[in-house]
Write a structure and sequence with these properties.
protein-glutamine glutaminase activity; CheB-like; alpha/beta; 5-stranded parallel sheet; 14 strands; 12 helices; EC 3.5.1.44; Rossmann fold; 7-stranded parallel sheet; 348 residues
Length: 348
């Protein structure tokens, strides 16, 4: 049984989360807490396997509590986040501090809306229970963090493609941090809900040396720019004459996801071919594995993140299993390998 402690200042949310999780035969809610101070004592008393944690709470905010928890007693945490600009930013900070994943609080009536998220909540708690939290060791970055944003608006005849899911927001950041400002355009599919992708792009724009934005339909893909698929939209690479552009659509989910990494990678294969390099990062499931294999079969240099540095080695592991990875690398080596891969082709 997966033993869960639910932490939320709302009595209704504690009840709803507990009821949802208790419907799963392999999950037991062993306790609840209305604030971090009570949660601290319940953790000592109950020794849960997974914590669900509200972002905004009285007496001590969720981020402060999470920071202390991951420093003193690391454990898997799933954040429960409000769909607001502030809620999205705090959630991304929580992932940076070591939270495994997050679920959104519903927009409409709480009881009805939260039950719609039951399957997602249960799945993410199950995933969290398989993870042993550990400090993410990343080599110091000194080369690119202080470099200016690119001043030119040249388009690119080469392109980098990146896909990720669980653990991906931080993994993508570590790759982008290591890319110089004159990097060919980067297109990114991260499994992230609508309302959070814009905050994620803004955060990456502030923290990296690239111009990072949420992709808009028709955006030109330019040097030194990265384009993140909006939540609930597929991102595809297309051509407008000699230029690469972004195309968005709300077609059916692929592998249960929209945006889907497979959709992005297959468009890169069609449009850019061997003028691309691609990386599949941490994530649950298999989305992107077949797309990476199709790129590999064209002769594109493809990279899968290794198991040791992945939060979940589902998507990259499946790509390796299917023979779709030219290289399997730790996270801090992927950026340089992507750049080298633009000229280092292999025979399919």
């Amino acid at each position: 049984m997966i033993r869960v402690l639910v932490v939320d200042d709302s009595a209704l949310m504690r009840q709803l989360l507990s009821e949802i999780l208790d419907t799963a035969p392999d999950i037991e809610v062993v306790g609840t807490a209305q604030d971090p101070y009570v949660a601290r004592e319940r953790i000592k008393e109950l020794n849960p396997d997974v914590l669900t944690l509200d972002v905004e709470m009285p007496r001590m905010d969720g981020l402060t509590f999470l920071r202390n928890l991951m420093r003193l007693r690391p454990m898997p945490v799933v954040m429960v986040s409000s769909l607001t600009a502030q809620g999205a930013e705090v959630t991304l900070q929580a992932l940076e501090l070591g939270a495994v994943d997050f679920v959104r609080k519903p927009d409409g009536p709480i009881a009805a809306g939260m039950r719609d998220y039951a399957d997602e909540l249960i799945e993410k708690v199950r995933i969290a229970a398989t993870i042993k939290p550990r400090p993410l060791v990343i080599a110091p970055v000194t080369n690119h963090e202080v470099l200016p944003k690119p001043a030119s608006f040249r388009t690119t005849d080469r392109v980098l493609a990146i896909g990720a899911s669980t653990g991906g927001t931080e993994a993508i950041k570590e790759v982008l941090l290591r890319l110089p400002p004159d990097t060919p355009g980067v297109v990114i599919a991260q499994h992230i809900p609508a309302g959070f992708s814009a905050a994620f792009a803004e955060r990456m724009n502030r923290q990296t040396g690239l111009v990072v934005k949420e992709a808009a339909d028709g955006d030109r893909v330019m040097l030194g720019h990265a384009y993140i698929a909006p939540g609930d939209y597929h991102l595809q690479l297309a051509r407008d004459g000699a230029r690469y552009i972004c195309r968005l659509d709300r077609g059916e989910p692929v592998n249960r996801h929209r945006p889907s990494v497979d959709v992005l990678f297959r468009s890169v294969a069609r449009v850019a071919g061997t003028n691309a390099a691609a990386a599949l990062l941490t994530g649950m499931g298999a989305d992107g594995a077949q797309g990476l294999k199709e790129l590999y079969d064209l002769g594109v240099h493809t990279i899968a993140q290794d198991e040791a540095t992945s939060v979940v080695w589902g998507m990259p592991g499946e790509a390796v299993k299917r023979g779709g990875a030219t290289e399997v690398l730790p996270l801090n080596n992927i950026a340089s390998a992507l750049l080298k891969g633009l000229t280092a082709k292999h025979k399919p």
